[in-house]
Amino acid sequence: MNELKKYFAGIFTGLKSLVLGLSVTLKVFLRKKVTSQYPENRKTLQISPRFRAMLTMPHDTNNEHACTACGICAMNCPNGTIKVITKQIETEDGKTKRALDKYFYDMGMCTFCNLCVISCPSKAIEFSNNFEGAAFTREKLVLKLNQENSKLREKIKNV
Ligand code: SF4
Ligand code: SF4
Question: Structure pTM?
Answer without folding.
Answer: 0.74
